[in-house]
Amino acid sequence: MKKSLMVLLLFVAAYGFGQTLADRVKHNDPSTYRELSAVHAGAGKMGFTQVIGRNDLSTNFLYLHTGSIDKKSGIGHHFHHTIEEMYVLLSGEAEFTINGRTSRIKAPAVVPCKKGDAHAIYNHTNEKVKWMNFAVSSTKGRGDNFDLNDTRVGAVLDPVPAFVNATLDKKLLKNNANAYSGEGSLYRRLFQPEVFGTDWNHVDHAVIPASSASKHTLTGVEEVFYVLKGEGKIKVNGQEAAFKADDAFFGKIGEQFEIEAGAGSEVELLVVGIAPAKNKLREIEKPLIQPKSIVLQMDFVVEKANAEAFEKMYYSIYVPAMTVQKGYLESKILRMFPEAISKEIQAEPTTYNYQVQISFATEADRRNWVASPEHQIAWPAASSLAKEYKWRGYDVMGDDFQD
Q1: What separation in angstroms does the CA of 373 have from each of 118, 253, 367?
Q2: Same domain, 135 and 95
Q3: How many structural domains is the chain composed of?
Q4: Contact partners, residue 250, CB within 8 Å, separation at least 6
Q5: What is the CA radius of gyration of the chain?
Q6: Is 22 left (phi over 0), alpha (psi -120 to 50) or beta?
């Protein structure tokens, strides 16, 4: 990495936006739990707190709730029109219901609650259980629910669950250096994107061995990490922060995390990935008096040795970083024709061999993008791969956009 790029990223991380890496690490502290009764018309009581909220990430991640469910207590049968959740059982055993079908699940386990699917959890035992709930919304910051007034107490049980679920079984983990580098690091993807209807992208289970480190790049997604076991440090852009068991932290699009396990024990993680939402252009039906939008054209001179990395940077870092911005419409990366074709069509000679076009609803939206923390990661990633660059801005007065 070029020295100037490293200096810029260090400045942005430390001073530019008022949040240090340590600020991202949140502890699941039972002493902060509020006591709730009849949650979604469920039985009994539970302890509850929010660890990560709707404004912490740029994507449509809605919340990470944690707590404990008292004996003979639970969350009643209900569903959501616009959000998807995933219940996580960290200790004990509980009865999970999805769309009226109920089975007993032993910890540690996860059960996704897909959009439109009614769901509930009931602790039938005489001991408290530890519980978590991740949620992703269809719309940034928006939630909803519809209660069915059903506690699920005494529900008929299926011996085999008739719904999607997964156990956090370390025996099923395998080495995958593309996901979590480092000798001895293990990983398993519990759920792929097709399981969910929102921008929820994946759920992973990972282990970093004691006294070792793993590098993990967030390509096109944001991720929320929950520390199931162990303690260590995370390092991002020159900063580092300590974590311990029952901490949660999150990573942003394009960041590379180094996760370092302490000497005492391995680090076990539950990881939720969320992809950015995508906007669609609107068609125009008649000539415009005022601009429909704006386009910025950026020309680059990229040496052959950097061409593959430049194109990968565009779809893995630049586009995901823009899609979470207010007013972003679309973008393109253009590569110059081969020299023989350029001569054949009598193209204007130029040393600029790549162009990136980005479109925002207004110039103000584009300037907000330039001032955003995501831009401070994306632009250095692009410019560091180019020998030269320049740009021009245009008002869009008409287009023909076809799917």
Answers
A1: 38, 10, 12
A2: yes
A3: 3
A4: 24, 52, 56, 57, 61, 222, 223, 224, 225
A5: 24
A6: alpha
374-395 pLDDT tens trace: 999 999 999 999 999 999 999 9
Question: What six digits make up the tokens of 313?
Answer: 């940077």
For residue 50, the SS3 value is strand
In a domain, 200, yes or no: yes
CA angle 58, 311, 12 (to 5 degrees): 40
Whether the CA torsion 323, 325, 327, 332 is positive or negative: it is negative
Q: Residues 254, 301: one domain?
A: no
The domain that holds 138 is classified in CATH as 2.60.120.10
Name the stretches of the chain with pLDDT < 70.
Answer: 1-18, 277-286, 401-403
Q: Note whether residue 6 is domain-resident.
A: no
Q: Is residue 280 part of a domain?
A: no
Q: Are strands 354-360 and 328-335 parallel, antiparallel or unpaired?
A: antiparallel
Are 159 and 260 in the same domain? no
The residue count of the chain comes to 403
- Gap between the Cα atoms of 102 and 163, Å rounded: 9
Range of the domain at 110: 20-168
Asked which of 107, 135, 168 is the last residue of a domain, the reply is 168
What is the pLDDT, as a whole number, of residue 264?
85
76: enclosing H helix or E strand: strand 73-79
Number of other residues whose CB lies within 10 A of the CB of residue 263: 9
139-164 burial, b for 16+ CB within 10 Å, e for fewer?
Answer: ebeebeeeeeebbbeebeeeeebebb
- Whether residues 248 and 321 fall in one domain: no
Q: For the segment 75-134, what is each residue's pLDDT rounded down to a tens digit?
A: 999 999 999 999 999 999 999 999 999 999 999 999 999 999 999 999 999 999 999 999
3-state secondary structure of 25: coil
Choose one of 168, 189, 216: the last residue of a domain: 168
Which pairing describes strands 247-251 and 222-229: parallel, antiparallel, or unpaired? Answer: antiparallel
Tokens of 95: 């009865």
Q: Tell me the average pLDDT of the chain.
A: 91
Q: For residue 14, is it within any domain?
A: no
